[in-house]
Design a protein that fits this description.
By secondary structure, this protein is mainly alpha-helical. Helix content is 65%, strand content 4%. Helix 1 runs antiparallel to helix 4 and helix 4 runs antiparallel to helix 5. The radius of gyration is 19 Å and the shape is globular. The N and C termini lie far apart (56 Å).
Length: 152
């Protein structure tokens, strides 16, 4: 079997793992800082795990199938995070950001460094700028009309 990574130096794999861990920590710090369910260790683990599987897929040359398994597996973990209690759904943002941190780790494993960093920017913007009480429909209300009633 011919490995695709024979000519890649070992330190490059270490750098990719470190980058994935660092970006996972950045996502996790924000979530932990705001008192959410998952924090630094959870997001770092998701990012590092996706990076490790990505490095394996680089080595054996089967990026498509292993990447699909990572996306499915982390999505399944995210589904376990989502809870419904008394008509209220919680954990959606945690599940989505966990899935996104795996994408950051996978892109780091494939050597797409700029994309890893670029992927982080919209999530940080979304998580820090939108509060829990933000209503998208409120941005389109006319000043003299009453607010729309929520169905939830």
């Amino acid at each position: 079997m011919t490995y695709l990574t024979e000519n890649i130096p070992w330190w490059l794999d270490i750098a990719r793992i470190l980058l994935a861990g660092l970006l996972g920590v950045i996502i996790g710090w924000q979530r932990e800082h705001h008192g959410r369910e998952a924090g630094i260790r959870t997001y770092m683990a998701a990012s590092l795990g996706a990076c490790a599987f990505g490095l394996v897929s680089n080595a054996i040359g089967d990026q498509g199938r292993i990447s699909a398994g990572i996306v499915t597996g982390v999505g399944f973990i995210g589904a376990g995070i989502i809870l419904r209690d008394a008509g209220r759904v919680t954990g959606l943002t945690t599940a989505a950001t966990l899935w996104a941190s795996a994408a950051v780790g996978l892109s780091a494993a494939y050597g797409i460094y700029r994309q890893s960093a670029r992927n982080l920017a919209p999530w940080k913007l979304e998580l820090t700028s939108l509060s829990r009480d933000f209503r998208f429909d409120a941005a389109f209300e006319r000043p003299n009309e009453p607010a729309a009633q929520s169905v939830l």
